[in-house]
Write a structure and sequence with these properties.
single chain, mainly beta, Immunoglobulin-like, Maltoporin, Chain A, 22-stranded antiparallel beta barrel, 5 helices, receptor, Beta-barrel_TonB_sf, siderophore uptake transmembrane transporter activity
Length: 725
Amino acid sequence: MSDVRRTAMSYRMMPLCCALMLAVVSGGPAHAQSAVAVQGTVLGKNDGAPVLSAEVRLPRTGARARTDERGTFRVAASVGDSLIVRALGFAELRTVVQSSTPVVRLVALATVLPVFTTTMGQRVIRASESPRSVTVIGREELDAVAAVSANQLLRQLPGLQELPAPPSKTSISIRGFDDSRVLVLVDGEPVAGALIESRDIGRLSTIATERIEVTKGPSSVEFGSDALGGVINIVQAAPTQHLTLDALAREGGLGRQESSVGVSQTVGKFGYRMNGGWRQSDRVTGYNAIGSTFNRIYDVRTDFRYALTDKWALRLDMQGSQERQRFPVDAAFNGFIDNRGGQGFAEVRGPLFGGNVRARAFEQRFVYQYRQSRELLPIKGSADSLEQRERQGRYLLSYTHVVGAHAIDVGAQRSHRTLVAPKKVTGDSADEQVTEVFARDSWTLGALLMTVGARHTNSTLWGSSTNPSFGVAWQTSSRVRLRSNVARGFRAPGFKEIRYTFTNPAGGYTLEGNPELLPESSWSTSVGGTWAPSQLVSFDVEGYRNDVSGLVDWRYEGDNAAGFQTYRYVNVARARTQGVETNARLNAGATEVTLGYDFLRARDLNSGLPLSRRASHTARLRVAREWTVRRGLSTDASVRYTGNAPLVGIPSGAPITGPFSTESGIIGRQGALLSVDAQLRLAVTRELEVSGGVNNLLNQQPNLWTPAFARQLYAGLRWRWSVAP
């Protein structure tokens, strides 16, 4: 070969040699780059909150990772690589790595409402992370219906019924279970009055409330005792980012007057929220009489939060209230109930041992006093004027750890409870120590979510109880989600059921507690599903059955030496509640429509009779709209129907007196209620809003429907100012 040809070939080979050398130096093809540790975050697109246990896959290498409780993940990838992100309840997303700290935002499927709920160990999760039936009422709906107390809104939901406890209390029934079998919480902690048996959900204000969570079905695995029918959790709002001032005044018929003020701000690492409110009415919750009836409540709620580091946070929450109720006892006397109390907790949480830990200490005090008078103010020392006082504390330590596709919650809680009730309980006081341990595994397997959990509770007063649960949710497609849950719940016997001692000489009877009482227990099964043909429309249905045994009731034990009839609390009753709940939603831009219907069958299995005041049919239609004819104009209207319900009589001679205590069996029917409520709101300026509305527009007052008040018109003025842009 000539020198000229060799030289020409050498020139032709030079580009190829250079390319090979570059490939050797770069370690591969020219377009590839060295893989680095990518630490990203997966968030919900609409709410910006972390997505737990999302699967992040790198198609090029097959590498996989899972997000932790903060939504973070780590995977070896290069800029330009593709990532496939999947999470139950969200649409799958394919994205390209553009930095070492990518932020991925997922779009929620319409089969699960984009809401949050509190679960085991006070951990807040998305509804998509639970196979339970959960309803969440947000601040917007609270404002839309001008609900000043929790019962005013909860009674409008299908499947929930308001049950009176005259003269001064009302409760919410869930799936046929009454007040002592529905656990009511504020920020995950029990409301005051349960130890004294003075439960009144109408006492709970909605000031500073962010949302109300309603979990249906036994929830003892998550929350412990009393959650046979379900749980109502009132969640307070967090401090705002910018300085915000808020004031509200409202006045209406039936003596309705209310006002509240609030301030909130976050400065650097410290955030605070302080709210105070006052309300009164010429009606007492659960009592329909007119004349001397009166109710007034003062509320104070505070929340302080401090970021100890970029990962550890401290929270201090305190609240207090004072209430007076007045109602006629007979033609000559008025009865007075004074309640006052306070509660609070301190909490610290942050990452530890590869997971997240939460420690919380809670304390509560509550005082109840009943007096009488012929006038409008009580007389000192009158009637049963000795104060009853309750005190309880709870100390929680919980831990959450994500291991692959498993989100594991474990924890322990220690509680102490004390009741001081002179002449009401044996020895005038009673104490209890409770120890609880719990654990649950939430396993995400593709489109399937499975949960298995259990809680063991041990009490120095009544013994122990172990309660398991199992749930499954299956996202069969982007439009259909199926769910099922099996759980055991329990209700511990109360202080007065175990240690009660009461004699009514005029009535000729004595009622005694029973230290041998066992906890009530229930097994529940539910099956349901959601179909969402589009982002605008969804349909939900769920069937359930609860079988309850060991219900505490009183039983005639004979006459004592004084000739008084003696009754004693015993575990004798059995009951079954079953039904079907349906719900449809339409969100068409400025208009939102919800329609729900529930069927309930609740029976006492011992007597074969239905449970008293449980309506078989309830329904609700709500239409909310933002109007374009006037900026800031919105309306909200709802129609609530509760069918007639049986009234079951109490046998003659029982230790309860009243208009229905002379015969057993069904002695009457509570009339059906059709209530129409409506409200109009108008933003006059950016800071000022006026509103007006009506409750019970048709002035429905059915026969024997105790909580049904007359038609009520009201008007309100709200001012809100913030430095936020």
